[in-house]
Design goal:
The structure is a single chain. The protein has a domain of 128 residues: Jann2411-like fold (Orthogonal Bundle). It is 45% helix and 14% strand. The chain contains 6 helices and 6 strands, in the order H-E-E-H-H-H-E-E-H-E-E-H. A two-stranded antiparallel ribbon has the order 1-2. Strands 3-4 form a two-stranded antiparallel ribbon. Strand 5 and strand 6 form a beta hairpin. Helix 3 runs antiparallel to helix 4. The protein is globular.
């Protein structure tokens, strides 16, 4: 993956999570829910923030593939948090995205290398996001969390030592929750 620097046009409140969660965070709270991938311009912004503009073209077919990957990952996260395991439908959706590519390893003059090969180039960003999700599963499902604020729908990887992080951003959602508790305590 290339270096990731948020595109200044990116309106999302949380940017820079691992690729799979960053893809989930292309939807964020609002009325109606904000969706960066509603239009192809947003797809281009996401590719830029994800550091993929040099590898992926902005095209409707790629946007459709990315939306499919987002739905597969979202379904998997919801199912894991609800039941602790992935059912056959979710596994099939994830594998459906993964079938579009593979990782080829070689030994070159500089040492081991890895190359992603795709059956169709428009699936690259989607494949990379689902592949990243598999890496997150290896790190532990309990570290993939949704923000604890009731109005927030963002996800993050809890990298805290004790695994007790609750908020996507303490400065926003955590402070809102603290202020609400203080207000209720003062009222009562």
């Amino acid at each position: 993956m290339t270096d990731r620097k948020a595109d200044p046009r990116d309106p999302r409140p949380l940017i820079g999570e691992p690729l799979a969660l960053d893809l989930l965070n292309t939807r964020w709270a609002g009325a109606p829910v904000n969706d960066l991938l509603a239009e192809s311009d947003g797809y281009g912004i996401w590719l830029s923030s994800a550091g993929l503009t040099d590898r992926c073209r902005v095209a409707d077919a790629g946007l459709d593939a990315l939306r499919e990957a987002r739905e597969a990952i979202a379904g998997a996260v919801h199912e894991l948090h609800a039941t602790g395991e992935l059912g056959p439908t979710v596994v099939s959706r994830l594998n459906g995205v993964l079938r579009h590519g593979r990782l080829r390893r070689e030994l070159g003059p500089q040492g081991p290398t890895e190359h992603v090969e795709m059956d169709r180039p428009e699936w690259l960003a989607a494949w990379l996001a689902v592949d990243d999700f598999l890496d997150l599963l290896d790190q532990g499902v309990r570290r993939i969390k949704q923000c604890a604020h009731e109005a927030c729908i963002l996800y993050f990887l809890d990298t805290s030592q004790n695994g007790r992080r609750r908020w996507c951003r303490m400065a926003v959602c955590g402070n809102r929750a603290k202020a609400a508790r203080h207000y209720e305590k003062a009222r009562g």
